[in-house]
Amino acid sequence: MDTGTSVPTAETDEQRRERLLAVVERLPRGPGVYLFRNEQGAVAYVGKARDLRDRVKSYFLRSRGDTRRAVLFVERYVHTIEFVTTATEQDAFLLENKLVKRWKPAYNVKLRDDKDFLYVRVDRRHPFPALALARRPRGRSRDVSFHGPFASAGSLRHALRLLGGVVPLRDCSDREFASRTRPCLKHDMGRCLAPCVGLIERDDYARLLEQALDVLSGRCEETLAALATRMADEAAAQHYERAARLRDQIRALRAVAAPPGVENTSLPDADVLGLHRAGDLAQVSVLFFRGGALVSTASHALQSELPDDELLEGFLLEFYGESRPVPREILLPCEPADAEGLAAFLGARRGSVPAVSAPQRGERRAAVELAGRNAEHALALEVEQRGHQRALLEALARRLELPVPPETIECYDISNTGRSGITASRVVFRHGEPDKSGYRTYRIRTLTDQDDYGAMREVLRRRFARVAQDPLPDLLVVDGGPGQLSVARRVCEETGHAALPLAALAKGGRRGRALTLAEGERERVFVPGRAEPIELDRGSSEEYLLQRLRDEAHRFAIGAHRKARSKEALASRLDDVPGVGPVLRRRLLTAFGGTQGLARASVEEIAEVKGVGPALARAIREHVGGGG
Predict the structure, then answer these.
(1) Which is more confident, 607 or 463?
(2) In the predicted model, what is the mean pLDDT of residues 211-226?
(3) Which CATH number fits domain 269-386: 3.40.50.150, 3.40.50.720, 3.30.420.10, 3.80.30.20?
(4) Residue 225's closest CA among 239, 211, 236?
(5) CA angle 21, 26, 30 (to 5 degrees)
(6) Which residues contact 333 (CB under 8 A, 6 or more apart)?
(7) Is the pLDDT of residue 2 over 80?
């Protein structure tokens, strides 16, 4: 194993960088494995490359103020570089795998034991196979197949119990099967067809087995249709007890098939990965599609400072270990560091090369975005469980140059309702998590036209007027960019709160209801005293926290917007009812506790209100019916 030059006893960061660059320039061109060692000499990271010199050199390519994860990783942790050349990329993957297991580097991806995964094992060498459970899919062959994986062992066992009432396969051991001379109790209960004593032919049993596997894979429409037809026939023949049993079987079958929840016929055999991160804490969610349906999900929390492409590649190498089957297709949120070499390595495990890609449009991209949302939600729980909020707040304080980490943050958003109605919302984060007791909505009183700046001015003045009852936050955030920041700063100065830390978030593009960033675009934060915005690194701790804050403010504002619009629409419909004036309108809303109660009221209930008869009650019901 080749290594770099000897390390001076004392050197500056820049001297270390220049020394390592000299080593990089001497690296060979071609496939191989590189090792980064830290100051104590321990292996910090093992990576593989198609071209050793180009790959390792990419860690050192920086511009002024570069904060890319790969650059920061090298500057903080790498003190010596070693390498091993290999004949092929495939050999590089194999050697990397061995060295990671040998050295257990601190910054390579490590997964917790996956014993929570279960597979359904079917051994067709037996004339009447049972549905057995297996933790590891070992011994796969033409006659032994594994179906899954299923992340929840409890859910799978419950599904098999329900399935036994619809597709009565045997669940006894092979030894018990061979020793039986008469049907067991489960045969009397209708949960087994007693193949042990020859009460069902082998071909008929095989059809039932395939039916059961289809149900577990989410394909049960044909079975449901056949049971529904039988139920209708039994009911028509007045065999109501048989029809009721078939009804119960249909319900059980739907319960078994319900967990998949997502149908996608273009993904017959695919694993879809989503990634979300908050600084060095990352979450990878995997959606398992089998037979065109989502059959299971899993999430893994990782602690890593590696860039996304290397993190995903390391995850895949760990995830598809020696026992886990490799699917036909793997969809990722971004291209791994070496997609072609990775596919070839996994193909050697699978027997054929899987399709590894990062789709940009269509159903496959939608599936990746779904996995990303799962990763985002799982990361929020992981942050809370690990007590990671303090680290997020400290990172935000450093990036925005705040005097202390902001334990309380308020964020304000303006939302227009209709042509003239304007509402505003406030969300509060305490210790890095939403505190819904502090959420507020404001109906703008002083404006009749759309004026977001004027609305923000009014809301903040009203908020600062209640400082005695509602203490100021450590950081006040407005959604809208430099214009809204200027408004907030002037209001703070007018009300004697000029020292309050302020920030304004500039929105990215909009995709559907969600705020998104274009490729390569960064979140921008405007703060007082800086002409240029602060651009946040993708996936950084501070970006994660501010995005959560902004998205929560947006969600709450949209909810307030819809509620106000619903009230306006129903009130407008009341005004259109002949015979309903201001007094009766107020009486109706008071009687039913508001617009939603009136919308749910029956004609008889409305008619009981003073001044409303049956005819007018029917007219009111017709106008407000369905008005939320």
Answers:
(1) 463
(2) 75
(3) 3.30.420.10
(4) 211
(5) 115
(6) 273, 274, 275, 308, 312, 358, 368, 371, 372
(7) no
Is the per-residue pLDDT at 260 higher than 60?
no
Provide CATH 3.30.420.340 ranges for the chain.
Answer: 391-561
H or E element that contains 120? strand 118-123
The pLDDT of 539-554, averaged and rounded, is: 86
Q: In what order do the strands lie in the sheet with 144-150?
A: 132-134, 118-123, 144-150
CA 55 to CA 572: how far, in whole Å?
A: 66
pLDDT of residue 510 exceeding 50: no
Question: Could you tell me which residues come within 8 angstroms of residue 216 by beta carbon, excluding any fewer than 6 positions away?
Answer: 120, 147, 159, 163, 256, 295
Q: Within 13 Å, how many C-alpha atoms sit on residue 177's CB side?
A: 17
Query: How far from 520 is each of 134, 338, 517, 535, 538, CA to CA, in Å?
Result: 44, 20, 8, 11, 9
**Cβ–Cβ under 8 Å, residues 406 and 397:** yes
Percent of the chain with pLDDT over 70: 82
When pLDDT is cut at 50, 70 and 90, the band that residue 389 belongs to is confident
* Cis before 149 (ω within 30): yes
Task: State the burial class of residue 198 (Cβ atoms within 10 Å of its Cβ: 0-12, 13-18, 19+).
Answer: exposed
* Class of the CATH-defined domain 576-624: mainly alpha
Q: What are phi and psi of 263, to 5 degrees?
A: -105, 135
Residues 341 and 50: beta-carbon distance below 8 Å: yes
What's the CATH superfamily of 391-561?
A: UvrC, RNAse H endonuclease domain (3.30.420.340)
The predicted-structure confidence for 391-422, as pLDDT tens digits, reads as follows: 888 889 999 999 899 999 999 988 765 545 67
d(CA 526, CA 481) in angstroms, rounded, equals 6
- Report the alpha-carbon distance of residue 137 to residue 147 in Å, rounded: 9
Q: pTM surpassing 0.90?
A: no
Among 423, 462, 413, 426, smallest CA distance to 443 is for 423
**Which of 125, 237, 216, 119 is CA-nearest to residue 166?**
216
Q: Which of 169-178, 262-271, 335-344 has the lowest mean pLDDT?
A: 262-271
Tell me, what DSSP letter sits at residue 437?
G
Sheet holding 293-303, edge to edge: 293-303, 281-290, 269-278, 329-331, 355-357
| Residue where the block lists tokens 């009341």 | 574
All CATH 3.40.1440.10 domain ranges of the chain, comma separated, are 2-103
pLDDT digits (tens, 9 = 90+) for 145-203: 887 777 666 667 777 877 777 788 998 888 889 988 898 888 888 889 999 998 999 99
Q: Which CATH architecture has domain 2-103?
A: 3-Layer(aba) Sandwich (3.40)
Q: 533: how many CB neighbours lie within 10 A of its CB?
A: 18
CB 315 within 8 Å of CB 284: yes
Residue 102: predicted pLDDT: 79
Sequence ranges of the chain with CATH classification 1.10.150.20 = 576-624
Q: What is the pLDDT, as a whole number, of residue 64?
A: 41
Write the CB contacts of 67 (distance below 8 Å, at least 6 apart in sequence).
537
- H/E element, 2: strand 2-3
> Could you give the CA distance from residue 261 to residue 547 in angstroms, rounded to a whole number?
28
Q: How confident is the model at residue 572 (pLDDT cuts 50, 70, 90)?
A: low
CB 479 within 8 A of CB 456: no
